[in-house]
Amino acid sequence: MPTLAIRFTAGRYHATPWYRHVNEGAVEWPPAPWRLLRALLAVGFAKQHWPGAVDELPPVARQLIEKLASVRPQFALPQGAVAHTRHYMPIVEGANQKTTKVLDTFLRLSDPDTPLLVHWDVALADDETALLRELAAGLAYLGRAESWVSAALIGDVPPDQEWSRPHIRGEAVSAGWEQVASFAPLAAEQYTAWRTSELATALTAAGTLTAKKRAELEASYPADLLACLCTDTATLQKAGWSQPPGSQRILYLRRADALEPAVARPRTAHLPRPTVEAALLTLASDTQSGQFCPLLIRALPQMERLHDAAVRRTNGQCLALRGCDAAHHPLAGHRHAHWLPLDLDGDGRIEHVLVYAPMGLDAVAQQALGRIVRTYGKDLPEIVVSLAGFGSLVTIRRQLRDQRGAHPAELATATVWESRTPFLAPRHLKPSGNNSLIGQVQAECASRGLPVPVRVEELSREVLVERRFLEFVRVRPDKAPPQTRPLGLRLTFAAPVAGPLCLGYASHFGLGVFTGVQGEC
Q: Where are the domains of the chain?
């Protein structure tokens, strides 16, 4: 007894049920038995080179189709959800042309590798089985032409397989199941008896006819079931049929949740992703609301929003993103993720964010970053977030360019570095000693494994005003700095230092970012 396995290679199935308009957004699921038999016949004509006349079909083909039509198949349905696209189709009426909106509704399969199984409870001869195997192998699509498939005749079927089967008249529908209308062929002998009766009634009603009219009337009733299946829609409509002769409407039982999307389960344990140094995110405005990318002066709250979104998507299980241990103690050495705001076009707004972690971003962190779609926050615009890619700092620096075509200064290798965003001392400043400005900068560099700068200079107030340092948000809601006075620094090292360079309070969230000074790299 044959079982056909059909895989939808594009993960979609497009087919509109009979008696439904395409713009109603309905999907024929399971596929109608009438559609399946017509698809197999089409393969025979197109790829087996059968003759065009129905009465000249190979006897084995006629036997196969009639046997399959004599029973109603059962279906094992893979899980899927209804989706659609909308587009405008042109309508040409003489010299006039207009458009009309069309819905392209389809079934999106949750797992394209799970096949649709079709089982016919009928015994086939060896030559019929061989032909069915060849027809299945030649099947390229089912439904509309964009429903690409690969099909094969299979042997044993899992004994615990759940089947969508024809509904028996008077049978109660079990909980969790529903009835769905479908379209199936009559058995060959049923159609022959129906045709004889209907044609006799039509001839009697027509009265006396010429030989030509009588032939036309008889031709409107296809000679047998194979002729019904091979008749095109235009011919049926011209003859006045609202339903193809030789067909019948039947009911199938289908799981009530058959068209509901499967629940996505996070797969974080076996992701084949190597650990990387950094990730690059792209920020875009919600143009529908007329908003813009966040201002650089609001880098601190925006970076915190991105950090919180990433941590939520790992349930707090990723140390590289969380930045603290189970007891909420900060990780030593500043090796967890830094969120660096980048303004490459010089408009004072953040359009990229570099997520850099010296300890590396593992598969869990990468998946979390890729799942961030939007960020929201008080006094912050709604931002669309997309992942540009992962890689090493060298790779990202090579691919990024600012408005002048130069590489980002935040990723330079230089001996002299200047503040891009305000530096806030992590402890109260003292006139001298370890808590002086120089002492705290040296300690910050040492904690990150950087060489101690040979010179630490403060930038003038005019430079601070020009760079809008006084306007920056400088306080985190849950952890205020010891002092909020913004500083601009110029650091000189004895040897070139590779960026990024981030020091001081909130240096993991956009403050204390330095840039290599051009000409001294």
A: 3-161, 270-408, 412-521
**Six-digit token string for 303:** 């970076």
Is residue 26 helix, strand or coil?
coil
Higher pLDDT, 294 or 463: 463
User: How far, in Å, CA of 438 to CA of 490, rounded?
Assistant: 11
The CATH number of 3-161 is 3.30.70
Residue partners of 56: CB distance under 8 A and separation at least 6: 50
Sign of the C-alpha dihedral computed for residues 288, 289, 291 and 294 taken in this order: negative
Which of these, 185, 166, 144, 117, lies nearest to 17 by C-alpha position?
Answer: 144
List b or e across 261-285, with b for residues whose CB sees 16 or more CB atoms inside 10 angstroms. eeeeeeebeeeeeeebbbbbbebeb
22-78 pLDDT tens trace: 888 889 999 999 999 999 999 999 998 898 888 889 999 999 999 999 999 999 999
170 DSSP 8-state letter: T
Q: Examine the pLDDT at 521 and tell me if it is beyond 50.
A: no
Handedness of CA 342, 345, 348, 352 (dihedral sign): negative
In percent, the amount of the chain with pLDDT more than 90 equals 45
CB-based contact 277:361 (threshold 8 Å)? yes
pLDDT digits (tens, 9 = 90+) for 214-248: 888 888 888 899 999 998 888 888 888 888 899 99
Q: Is the pLDDT of residue 288 over 60?
A: no
Q: Which two tokens stand for residue 359?
A: 């300890």
Give residues with Cβ within 8 angstroms of 303, minimum separation 6. Answer: 339, 341, 353, 508, 509, 510
Flag whether pLDDT at 134 surpasses 60.
yes
CA dist 280 and 305 (Å) reads 16
Instruction: Give the distance between the most distant pair of CA atoms in the chain.
Output: 121
State the Cα–Cα distance between residues 74 and 30, nearest whole angstrom.
Answer: 9
Residue whose C-alpha is closest to residue 225's, from 182, 186, 184: 186
Could you give the 3-state DSSP secondary structure of residue 455? strand
The CB density around residue 78, as the number of other CB atoms within 10 Å, is 21
Contact 489, 459 (CB under 8 A): yes
Q: Which residue has the tokens 């027809």?
A: 135
Which of 2, 154, 11 has the alpha carbon at shortest distance from 70? Answer: 2
Q: Which regions of 398-478 does DSSP assign to beta strands (E)?
A: 413-419, 455-458
The answer to which of 212-216, 357-361, 377-381 has the lowest mean pLDDT is 377-381
Query: Do residues 154 and 4 lie in contact, with contact meaning Cβ atoms separated by under 8 Å?
Result: yes
- Checking if the pLDDT of 167 tops 50, the result is yes
Residue 175 DSSP symbol = T
Q: In what order do the strands lie in the sheet with 12-13?
A: 12-13, 96-109, 80-93
The distance in angstroms from the start CA to the end CA of the chain is 76
Q: Provide the pLDDT for residue 260.
A: 75
Is 511 exposed, middle or buried, given 0-12, 13-18 or 19+ CB atoms closer than 10 A?
Answer: buried
